[in-house]
Amino acid sequence: MNQKDDIQNAIRSLPSSPGVYQYFDKNDRLLYIGKAKNLKKRVSSYFSKRHDSARIAVMVRKIDRIETVVTETEFDALLLENNLIKTHQPRYNINLKDDKTYPWICIKNERFPRVFPTRQKIKDGSEYYGPYASVRVMKTVLELARQLYPIRTCKYNLSEENIDNGKFKVCLEFHIGNCLGPCEGHQSEEDYNQSIDAVRSLIKGHLNTVRKALQEQMHNQAGRLEFEAAQKTKERLERIEKYQAKSVVSHSGITNVDVFSAITDATHGYVNFLKIIDGAVIQSHSVEFKRKLEESESELLALAIPEIRQLYNSDAPEIFVSHPVDVAIPNTQISLPQRGDKKNIVDLSLKNARYHRLERLKNMQTVDPDRHVKRLMQQMKIDLRLPEEPRHAECFDNSNLHGTNAVAACVVFKNGKPSKKDYRHFNIKTVEGPDDFASMEEVVYRRYKRLLEEEAELPQLVVVDGGKGQLSAGLRALERLGLRGKITIIGIAKRLEEIYYPNDSIPLYLDKKSETLKVIQQMRDEAHRFGITHHRNKRSKNTFRSELEDISGIGPESVRQLLRSFGSVKGVRHADEKALSEVVGAAKAKRIFQNFNKTEQ
Q: What DSSP letter does each residue of 498-531 carry, written as one string?
C-alpha cells in the first residue's frame, strides 16, 4: 500500500467531531497543527482540491502521517491548538513570537483580593479561571462582577498595619459607589470576602442569581421607558448566557500531570497518554497492545505507564489513571479521579483511546478484512455469551396493519454482513388477527423445518425482534423441531435495546457503542425494512385486486396487462375506452370504462 492509500484510509476513519490534527512528514517531523469543528471534513479538504497557495500544496505533498486529538468542544480544540503550537512550533504554522496566550481571570492571593484579567499565571496561590477565547466575554464577566459586587481596583498593599496607620486615602471609585473603601477601614475583611465568594461563584458559571438580577433590571428599565438602557442590559444578558468558564484542555488547577486511560476488546487493548504542563495539554499519544493472556485494563496500564513515560522522558510527580493500577513509581502519586476537573481530563483521555480503537478497526476493515471478521466474531461470542462464533446469524420480524396482510421477514447475516440472497419473507398462514407471538412461532418453525428437510446449514444465532413474548414463541418453535440447545436464540427489545435470553428474567444491556450491539441493531433494522417492503407490496397487490379484479370479467392476467400499459390503477381509471380496448379488447374495455365512470358519478 502506498503513501496516498495510507492517507486516504486515515481520512476515512476520522470522526466528525471537534479536535486538533497534526501532519508529519516521512522523517516524522511535525509539519502543521490545526483545529477543526469537524475533523473529517477539515482534513479531507486538504486532499480533495487544488490549492491556490503554493506553500500549502508543497506541505500537502510532504504529509506522510496524520495524528488527531479529539476534544469535547470547538472551544477546547482552539485552546489545544494554541498549546501545541507553542510547545512544538511546527514549520508551517505562524510563529507566535509575542508568546501571547488566551487571557484568564485572576483572583489575587492577598488581603482584600483584586479581580483582574491576565495572560500570565504566577504560582503564588492565586486563583485563575478560564482561559477565554473571547476577550469580550471575559470583559462582560468582569464588568458584571464589578456592577453587582463592590470590589477594589487599586494595587495598594492593604495590610492591617498600613490601614491602621492611615497610609491610604479613598479614591474616586469610593465616591461613585464602586468600592466601599477598605483602604481606610470602611469595609471589614469578612464583608469584603463575602463579595469575593459571590464573584468566584459568578466566574465559575453559577449564573442563576445573576441572570435573574439582569432580567429584573431589564424589565425595570423597560417599565421606565429607558429602552436604550434595557437593550444594553439585554445584550449583556445574552453574552453572559454564552459564557463558558471551564475548559478540559486548559485548567490552572492541574499543573504537571501525566494522564493514562485504557480500553479493551476481545483481542486488543488501547492506551492513551496525555501530557499536561502548567495546566495545558501539550501531548497526546495512543498505542495498541495485543492481549495475549486476556489482560485487563488495569494490567495494560501497569505495562504501558513505565514504557510511555520512558519514551517521553516524563517525570511528572502525579499520574491520573482510568482504572486502578498496582504499580509503584518513586516520588510519584497515582490517583483514580472520581469527579470534577480531574475526572474530566481522564474522560478526555478515554475518548481519545476509543477514537484510536475505532480508527484502527476501520483501517483493519480496509487493509485486513479477514482479521476484522475474526476479531468481530470473537467479540460477539464474548459479549453475547455464545458457545461458538455467530458466523451465520438470522433475524425475524413480523409486520401487519390492524391484523391484515400479516407477513414476516427473515434476514441472514454471514460474518457480520448482510447476505441478501438468503433473505426470505413469509405470508402468515395459520394465524388470524394481530397475534405477534403466534406469528413468530409459525415463521421460525417454517424456516427451520425447511432447512432441516433440505439438510441446509443452520445458524449459530437467531435473533427475534421483541421482548420475552416473541422470544418464548421462537423458543417453542425450536423445541418442536428438537433444536433447542443446538441454536442460540435471543430477543432484542426496542425500548432500551435490552437483550433477552430464554428462562432469564434479567436482560443483558450492552454498551451503546459496542460493535456487537450495532450488528444486532443492524439485523433488527434490516429485518424490519425487508418485512415492511414486502407488506407494502402485498397491500398494493390487494388494492389492485379490489379495484380491478372485482370488476366482472377482469382476471389477474388482464390486471397485469393494464398495469403494465397504464402504470397504475389511477392511469387505468383516467384512460378512455379506445385506449383500454387496445390492451384488453373492446368487451373488457367497455366494462372497465363503465365501472369507473359509474364510480365517479
A: EEEETTEEEEE---TT-HHHHHHHHHHHHHHHHH
**Spatial distance between the Cα atoms of 386 and 501, rounded to a whole number of angstroms:** 11
Helix axes 135-148, 189-204, angle to 10 degrees: 150
Angle, vertex CA 407, rays to CA 402 and CA 411, nearest 5: 135
Residues 121 and 161 placed together within one structural domain of the fold = yes
Question: Residue 264 is which amino acid?
Answer: T
Does residue 18 contact residue 77 with C-beta atoms inside 8 Å?
A: yes
Residue 406 corresponds to which cell in the numbers above? Answer: 400479516
pLDDT digits (tens, 9 = 90+) for 350-374: 988 888 887 777 776 666 677 778 8
Give the three cell numbers for residue 514: 459496542
The kind and range of the H/E element at 283 are strand 280-290
Contact 126, 106 (CB under 8 A): yes
Q: List pLDDT tens digits, range 475-522.
A: 999 999 888 888 899 898 877 788 889 888 888 888 877 888 888 888
List, for residues 377-407, the tens digit of each pLDDT value. Answer: 888 888 888 889 899 999 998 875 444 557 7
In a domain, 246, yes or no: no
Q: Is residue 247, in this structure, part of any structural domain at all?
A: no
- Residue 68 above 60 pLDDT? yes
Q: Please, are residues 480 and 452 in contact by the beta-carbon 8 Å criterion? A: no
- Coarse DSSP helix, strand, coil percentages of the chain, rounded to the nearest 5 percent: 45, 20, 35
Given a cut of 60, is residue 145 above it in pLDDT?
Answer: yes
Question: Do both 39 and 145 map to the same domain?
Answer: no
Residue whose C-alpha cell reads 484510509 in the numeric block = 9
- Residue spans of alpha helices (H) in 1-47: 3-12, 39-47
Cell numbers standing for residue 274:
496525555
Report the candidate in 152, 146, 145, 143 with the shortest Cα–Cα distance to residue 186.
152
In 3D space, the residue among 311, 324, 247 whose CA is nearest the CA of residue 273 turns out to be 311
Whether residues 415 and 524 fall in one domain? yes
Q: What is the domain extent for residue 588?
A: 551-600
CATH number for the domain that contains residue 357:
3.30.420
CB atoms within 10 A of CB 357: 19
- The number of beta carbons lying within 10 Å of the beta carbon of residue 195 is 19
